[in-house]
Amino acid sequence: MAFRDTKSKIIIKTPEQIEGIRLSSILAAQTLEIVAPYVKQGVTTDFLNKICADFMLANKAIPATKGYNGYPKESCISVNDVVCHGIPGKYELRDGDIVNIDVTTILNGFFGDTSRMYLVGEVSEHAKKLVKVTKECLAIGINQCISGTPINNIGYEINKHATAHGYSTVYEFCGHGVGIKFHEEPEVCHIADKNTGPILAPGMIFTIEPMINAGKARCKIDRKDGWTARTIDGKLSAQFEHTICITKGKPFVLTDISNEFEIPESVF
C-alpha cells in the first residue's frame, strides 16, 4: 500500500524485530498464494477480499488496511486502469483483466506488506508485456538495495527501465518504511535522481512497489470513494511489491516465498 504520510526518523530494526517482521511478511506472501486459484473470470473482487481476510484472520493476523484512515476493506484490489488502492466490491473479473492484490498483515504487532499481479483468462500481449516489465522493475530496484547505496538509486533505475520500454512511472505514490508501523520513513520513490537521498544501512526495512503505467504517469482519485487511484488516461497500470531488509551483503526480500532472491547469511 502506497502513501506519503511518514514523519518519523528511519527505524533501524533489531534482530528480534526483523524476525517478527519476517514472519508477518511470509504470511502476507502466503495470502497472495492462497487467493491465486480464485482470481478468474466471474469472481467478484469482494469475494477475493474475503479469501484474503479469512486466511489472515485464521492465522491470527490482523489485516492492516481495514479501518486505516477509514479504508473499508482487508485488501486493495486494483483492476486494469486502477493504479492502487482499489476497494474490493461487486466488480466481476472479466477475460483479459489484469489484477493487483495488495495485502498487509499485522502478526504479533509486526507488519508485512506485499502485492502482485494476476492475469485473468486470455490477456493481450501488450498487457502481458506491461506486467512483465513491471516485475522486472521491482527486481531492478531490489538489486540496488546494498548497504552504502543512496536510496534514490532504486527509483532512478526503476524509471530508467520503465521508460526504456515506453512506459511511465507513477510518482504520486511511493514505497515506504514498514515493520513496526504500517508506514514509516524512508519514502522510496520509484522515479528519482541518482545518488541522492538517505544512505542504505543494515536493519532498514521498507517496501519497493513500482506502479508502471502504459500511458501517462499521473493518477486521479475517484471522488465517490476517495481512495481508488486510476490512470489519468484510462490506460493500463501494473504493480509488484516486496518488503526488503537491508543487510551487510545482499538484500533480504522478506516477502519472497518462491525463492526468487537469495537469502543472505546475516543482516548485521
Task: Explain what you see.
- There is one protein chain.
- Helix content is 25%, strand content 23%.
- The protein is an alpha+beta fold and 268 residues long.
- It has one domain: Alpha-Beta Complex (Creatine Amidinohydrolase), CATH 3.90.230.
- It is built from four helices and 15 strands.
- Strands 1, 2, 4 and 5 form a four-stranded antiparallel beta sheet that branches. Strands 3-12-11 form a three-stranded antiparallel beta sheet, with no helix packed on it. Strands 6-10-13 form a three-stranded antiparallel beta sheet, with helices on one face.
- It is globular.
- The model is unreliable at 3-7 (pLDDT under 50).
Q: Which terms summarize this structure?
A:
single chain; 268 residues; alpha+beta; Creatine Amidinohydrolase; 4-stranded antiparallel sheet; 3-stranded antiparallel sheet; 25% helix; disordered N terminus
Can I get a quick summary?
The chain is an alpha+beta fold and 268 residues long. The protein has helices at 15-35, 45-58, 125-143, 152-164, and strands at 62-63, 76-79, 82-84, 98-107, 110-119, 168-169, 175-177, 184-188, 205-208, 211-213, 219-221, 229-231, 237-239, 242-245, 252-253.
